[in-house]
Each structure stands twice: as structure tokens, then as C-alpha cells.
Amino acid sequence: MNMNSWHVNVKVVFYILIAFLFSFVVRLIWVYQFGEIESFKFAGQFMINTNDGYYWAEGARDLLSGVHQKFDLSPIDQAPSLLTYLLAKILPFSFETIIFYMPSILGSLIVIPIILIAHNLKMLDVGLLAALLASIAVSYYNRTMVGYYDTDMLTIVFPVFLVWSLILAFRTKEEKYLLLTALEIIAYRWWYPQSYSLEFAFAGLILLYALVYERKNGFYFQLLSMMLFAMMGLPSLARIVLVVLVYLIIKQKKFFKYTWYLLGLAIILFFVTGGFAPIWGQLKSFVFKDAIDVSRDALSLHFFSVNQTIREAGQIPFSIFAERISGHTITFIVSVIGYLLMVWRYRVMLLGLPLLGLGFLALFGGLRFTIYAVPICAFGIAYLLFTLSAYTQGLFDNPKTGQLIKSLIVILGSLAILYPNILHIIGYRVPTVFTKAEVEILDKLKKITNREDYVVSWWDYGYPIRYYSDTKTLIDGAKHSGDVNFPVSYMLTNTEERASKLARLEVEYTEQGFAKSEANQSVMNNTAQMTLDYGLKDANDFLESLDTNITLPSKTRDIYFYLPFRMLSIFPTVAQFSNVDVMSGKPMREPFFFQSSRFQDSPTALNLGQGVVLEKNRGTIKIGQQEVTIKYFITTGYTKEKKLFKEEKLVNPQGQMSMIYMQAYNTFLVVDEAMLNSSYIQLFVLERYDERFFEPVILEPAVKVYKVKM
After folding, report:
1. Which one of 395, 467, 602, 622 is CB 3.0 to 4.6 Å from 54, fit for a cystine?
2. Closest CA to 655 of 632, 622, 678, 680
3. Backbone phi, psi, residue 632, to 5°
4. Model confidence at 572: pLDDT above 80
5. Which of 180, 280, 268, 275 is nearest to 231 (CA)?
6. Helix (H, G, I), strand (E, B), or coil: what is residue 42?
7. SS3 breakdown of the chain: % helix, strand, coil, rounded to 5?
8. How confident is the prediction for the chain on average, in pLDDT?
9. What is the dihedral of CA 110, 115, 116, 117, to 10 degrees?
């Protein structure tokens, strides 16, 4: 190795270290801001700030403990859990510390492939700025900050490494990059099983390039073959063995003439093993979204689609789209221009199109996709800045003056590019998923439950409940399709009798469904199966029968209702999932629920905002242009011993709405009769439980836990 190459390699390593440290240190701003907030800590350790993280934490926890019960859905065989388990085994840190800081460490690795790409293109300075920006760009930071323990830790790192290896393959035509590319695809799929679409986009782009520019160059078709073998729908180990064998064959020059046969075999095996099926499934889920899911069973029931309520899957304005990718709309537009210029200079940068294209899908499929465009746009604006600075330098006859102006442009431009992103980071004060008080309640629950017991709550809280209480749940961050959300929504928004009976049915049928699946028997959704088992053909008739003395399945485990105060703000969304006629898919009469914590009080009226006003003298509530009478006015509060007290006044027996003032929370509720009688309002807000169906277990202002007696 000559001295010049040695110096370049040292510079590459130095730039990587600088960019990595910058990325990591910036992520410590959150730690500095909340270091003294004890409610964000449990047992003296920071808790994580993403719900999904508790899924992977559950798997790693079970791997470390060696305890895992059947059908608990713990991801003990998934990459994030396995990697966390390995790190927890070898590192001298607590488990909580590891999962809290993992995102900031792994997410910062994105600087490595970015700088390596720039090194290959002989523009290291561009790579440094691109790495600095990409590592802290709004959407990338949001999903790799401390505490954001999820697959996003490496979801962008892997494809950027893939771009790097493809660039090397294109520029060098060396066979070793065929194997490297294939192994990267396998590693990416191992880490993030939903990587199908991006892998397919890379393969499609290479096929198009080869057909247009390199039809006679067999190397590109060998590369495509290796990629397709790596993308097959087979276990990772099988694909590793296969790509290594194919690579050894390709290295034998005498087999070069069989390149087209190899490609044909790769295409056939790709489709035969189901390689395209998951790609279509993802497109259907995120792009071609339906408001109603129709079950494929004997009754063809209709359920409300969860995609309609997930903000990440909704359409976003262009300004938000641009800011999440580059920090500012102007920065984004300039970065796209820079990328186009970069492609004009380095055609190989067309390999960034799959990432950029998936990022642009955010305009239609939701903001979750913006993260993919971050590294490519970072390259674009960095390249444009250095190109302009170099052009400006050439305008001066005095080299020193030109160099000074160039340096000023680079420094000031870099600061201008990074500033809005750092400003976002300072203001992005995301809380932990649960507070210390809520986790302490789950820790208490863990001590009185068995691992086979079920806890009923909304899917947002499924993973944290399973992690801290070590119980099962009906729905969670992955299991929340319309057919499983429907019964839980129904339990929370209907009477205690219906809630308790349906809870027993749903839990027992869920366990029976697991057993049937294990035995390779067909399984229909529980609501349809219950309807048919009770001799009915209309699911609505079955739901009505819950008011009668129906025979329930034998009890195999206990069931608990976890009712947090935080659910109050999303209760209308919760109600949407059961506000549908499952037989026809048509919306039913939507129950009325209004919450206000910001209000203006006067001697004659109480203005709750959004056009809802209590007329005190007349005992009526004005809702927009409609005026309705009040039936009950209820006030709740807590004693010093945290015991609930309530004062209830019957205003008008014929009233249509009731008002509840939750004094301890400084919150007013306006509800109709259906919402007033819902199990959530009765059990959490009023602590009014029917002893035939429920018994209290934990009654705290933050969370109420009840045990089902059915």
C-alpha cells in the first residue's frame, strides 16, 4: 500500500469516527433534557419511548430468562431480540440501558456506508457532510433517537450498505461484490422481513439498466441472478448456502456461457418460493388501503380497517414530507436538484432511486416512508454545496481568496443545512411510552397474575403490558387488524355484562384458534366462529344474545381489564372499531363522546371549545347548532388516600346527554347514554362496577385494573 492510499484510508476512518460521534452526541440531548425527570424512569433506568420496542424487549427478556410459554407471541426467534440477547450477554450494562441506547448506536452506523460511497466516488468531503445530515435528519432522528428501540435502528443502514456494494459491483465488475450484495440482502431480510419491496426495486432497476445499457455484459445478469437467489422465500440459512454455491459456480469461468440459464432458474425459483407475494401484500396494505376489511369466512363479516386510524399510514402535506426528509422545504428542493446533478456526473448514483422512490411514496402511503429518502437527499445537497463552492473558488484569480470563499461557503452552507434539523431535535421532547406510575401498576399486576392470564386493553398498550406484567393480550402493535380490534372495542364501549361475557368468549376462542393453527386446521375470525357455534347466522344477533343467559366456554385462565386514563383521549377512535354493522359494513349510529381540558367558565355558560357550550340557566348543552338537554351532571375527585368520590345530580330524566367533571384531571366529558354506560366510563371514570361481572384489583388515578368474574 502506498503512502497516498494509506493517508486516504486514515482520512476515511477519521471521517467515519467524526460523523459517528456527532450523530451519537446529538442524540444525548434528549438524555440531558430529561435526566432529572423521575417519571420517565423505572427502577432508576430510563424507559424506552416507542410502543413497538417492548415487543422486541419481550423476546430478548424471554431469551435471557429461558422461560417462554406457548402461544405468547414473544419474538424469541426475531433478529432484534436475538441481537439484544447477544449484547446483553456480552456487555457489562443493564438490559434497560442496552435497549435504551441501542438505537443511537446502531442508527449512527448509517454514516459508514455513506462515507464509503463517497470514498469510492472520490469525494470524501461530500460524504462527511452527507453523513452528518443523514444521521440527524428529522425522520431519521425520530426513529433512531435514544429509547426508540425498534427495527428502524438498522432498517436504513442495511439498504445504504446495499447501495454501496452495488456501486462497487458496477464500477469494478469484481465477482466478490456479487456475493457481498447477496449476503447484504439476506442480512437485511433477516433484520427486517418487510424489506421485500425495496429489494425488488433494486433488482428491477438493475434489470432495466442491464437491458438498456449493458445487454451484452453478462456480469449484470449474474448480479441480478445472485440478488434473486438471495430474495427467495426460503429460510436465511438456506439462502446463504445457495448464494455461496452459486457464487462458487460463477467464479468458474467455464460456466459463464450458462449465465442466461442461471438467470432463468433464479427467476423461476424466486416466484415459486413466493418471492413476489409479500411485495404485493405490502403495496396493498400501505398504498391501496380500504376503510373496511372483509373477512374471508362463512359469514364474510366487515370490520373497520386499522390503517384508517394510523397517522403514519395517512397522507401528509408536502411541507411535512420535505421537512422530515431534509429539515426544511428549501433544503429538500435543493437536495433533489443536487441529486439530479450528481446522477448526471455519476450515473451509478441512479442506484439510489429505489430509496428515493420509496421515500416519495410517503406522499401517498404515509410519513413512515420518508426515512428512506434521507440518505439520498443528504448526498444531493452535500454534492450541490461542494460543487457551487468549487465553482465560486474558480471565479477568483487569487488562490488564497478563492480558497477562503470556498471554505466560508462550505462552513456556512453546512451550518444552514444542519441547523433546522438540530433545532427539531432540541424541540422534539418525546416522552416515554408509560410513566413510572403506570409501570409500577403493571409491576403489581405481574405479582398477582399468571403468565397464561390475559389482560384486555387497547392495542396501543399491548406490548408494554406484556413486557411489564408478563401476561398475554388479545391485541397489540402487530395484531390489530379489524377483526381482532372489533371485539376489544366492543368490550370497552358496551355494557359490563356484554364486556365480561365477550371477554371470556374471545380469550377462550383465541386459545382454541392457536391450537387449531398449530394442527394446520382452518381458523375463521372469532366473531364469525362464535356466531355459528351458537347456532346463528347473523353476528348482530349473536352480540345481542350477550344480554341473555348464554352458556360460556369453560374458564381456563383469568382475564383482567387494564383501563388507563391515557385511553380517554383516544376513546372515540377505540369506539370506531365497533361502530360498524359487521354484516353489511355500514356505519352504525356513532355514540357521542366529547372531552375537554381547556374551557372557559362564566356565571351563565361553560364553554368547552369546538362549539360545545353548557348553558347553565337552562340546563342544556349546545353542540354546534344543536341544543340538547342534560340528564346527569356528575363530579368525581379523589381523597388524600386516592379514593374516588363522586357527586351525581339528576338534572332531567329525559335528558339526552350527561356531563362528567373529572376534578382531579381538570377534564370535562360530554357523553350520550351509550357512552355513559360503556364499561370504560363505568369502570375507570366512575368506578361503578357490577359485582356479577367484575371485581376491582388495582384502583389508582392513572390506571384501574379489574378482574373478570365470568
Report:
1. 467
2. 632
3. -125, 145
4. yes
5. 275
6. strand
7. 60, 10, 30
8. 91
9. 100
**Run of H or E including 95:** helix 95-107
Instruction: Judge contact between 489 and 527, C-beta under 8 A.
Output: no
Q: Report the alpha-carbon distance of residue 473 to residue 454 in Å, rounded.
A: 5
Q: Which of 368, 349, 351 is closest to 155 using CA atoms?
A: 368
pLDDT tens column, 507-544: 999 999 999 888 888 888 899 999 999 999 999 999 99
Q: Tell me the mean pLDDT in the region 610-627.
A: 87
668 alpha-carbon distance from chain centroid: 31
Query: Which grid cell is 466?
Result: 406484556
Kindly state the greatest CA–CA separation across the chain.
Answer: 96
Place of cell 388501503: 289
Could you tell me which CATH class the domain 436-568 is placed in?
alpha beta
Report the alpha-carbon distance of residue 205 to residue 338 in Å, rounded: 21
| CA atoms of 302 and 367, how far apart (whole Å) | 27
CB within 8 Å of 511: residues ≥ 6 apart: 71, 556, 557
**DSSP-assigned letters across all residues of 342-389:** HHHH-GGGGGGHHHHHHHHTHHHH-GGGGGGGHHHHHHHHHHHHHHHH
Contacts of 534 (CB under 8 A, 6+ apart): 542, 545, 550
The answer, yes or no, to whether residue 696 has pLDDT greater than 60, is: yes
Which DSSP state fits 76? T
CA 502, CA 589: separation in Å to the nearest integer? 21
> Measured between alpha carbons, how far is 486 from 269 in angstroms, rounded to an integer?
39
| Main-chain phi, psi angles of 546, to 5 degrees | -65, -20
- CA dihedral angle for residue 17, residue 30, residue 468, residue 636, rounded to 10 degrees: -170
Residue-wise pLDDT tens digits, 649-682: 999 999 999 999 999 999 999 999 999 999 999 9
Listed residue (197, 138, 186) closest to 158, CA to CA: 186
Residue 339, number of CB atoms within 10 A of its CB: 23
Q: Which three cell numbers stand for residue 546?
A: 350477550
